[in-house]
Design brief:
With 277 residues, the protein is of the alpha+beta class. The chain has 10 helices and 11 strands. Strands 1, 4, 5, 6, 7, 8, 9, 10 and 11 form a 9-stranded mixed beta sheet that branches. Strands 2-3 form a two-stranded antiparallel sheet.
């Protein structure tokens, strides 16, 4: 089955003049990407893939090799940031810097601004493709049921939106034992867990700072200010852990930021490639 599926995909690519297969991607690198190769012992969080441990070996047997690894970090939101980071964050906001929650009254405009920052901040990343207006509209629609304004934060510098972070409640935690069924009683369990019991885990799928600010004294501080604001809000709401994903293995600035904030890699996803003769 593996061989037949990949052979069909490779034939489709060759017919269109392509000389390389690269993936897995769910339509683009802006959606679900990569095959889980480390971290199978923990369940996937919202909008994350999960693959049998043997899958990577089967793909490699077909001539595919690693193109890039991407990491998922796990952070403990029940504790503050490490002291060395917290000291900088709690000195007070630098002049001209503001941190605020998402404004739901301006939701569509906020998502457009978020996408603009995302396209700018990630432009130099490996495999990057800009998010289009249509994708932005779909993103706004898809995320709205999950968005909690208390867990989505923007940073501004001199009145200009300069960065953001989004924490999503881990819906997978609430539906894990429902076996895909909301009837007859699944819907009641889901609502009780979301509205009464509350969730303990969240995921940060999106974070970015405009490049023109990223290397400035004030801009360097923004990721830590945003993570602190989001984690503090999550802690008050009962969240205990947050996943930050995906992070390219060679994205040194972001890996350094997350490690400095006390997060640790706990899952690795792999993007494979193969030359097509």
């Amino acid at each position: 089955m593996f061989a037949a599926l990949f052979a069909a995909a490779e034939a489709w690519l060759r017919e269109r003049g392509r000389d390389r297969a690269l993936g897995p991607f769910n339509l683009s690198i802006n959606e679900e990407v990569g095959l889980l190769v480390e971290g199978h012992e923990t369940p996937p969080m919202v909008l994350m893939g999960h693959d049998p441990a043997f899958t990577g070996r089967r793909i490699e047997d077909l001539g595919y090799a690693k193109a890039k690894d991407i990491f998922a970090y796990l952070a403990d939101t029940t504790h503050d940031l490490p002291d060395r980071v917290l000291e900088r964050v709690r000195r007070g906001l630098p002049e001209g810097v503001a941190v605020r929650e998402l404004d739901m009254a301006r939701y569509d405009q906020e998502v457009r601004e978020l996408t603009t920052i995302l396209n700018d901040a990630w432009a130099d990343n490996w495999g990057f493709t800009p998010t289009t207006e249509a994708e932005t509209a779909q993103l706004a629609k898809a995320l709205k049921p999950l968005i909690d304004k208390r867990l989505t934060w923007f940073a501004e510098i001199d009145g200009e939106t300069a960065g953001f972070i989004v924490f999503l409640p881990n819906l997978n935690e609430a539906i894990r034992d429902l076996k895909g069924r909301l009837l007859p009683f699944g819907w009641a369990k889901l609502l009780w867990r979301l509205k009464v019991k509350g969730l303990k885990t969240a995921r940060v799928p999106l974070m970015g700072v405009r490049r023109k600010f990223a290397r400035t004294p004030r801009g360097v501080l923004l990721p830590f200010l945003l993570m602190d604001a989001g984690a503090s809000a999550a802690r008050k709401l009962g969240y205990q852990r947050a996943e930050l994903s995906w992070i390219l293995e060679d994205n040194r600035p972001m890996n350094h930021i997350l490690q400095a904030a006390g997060a640790q890699v706990y899952k690795t996803y792999r993007i494979y490639e193969k030359a097509l003769a």
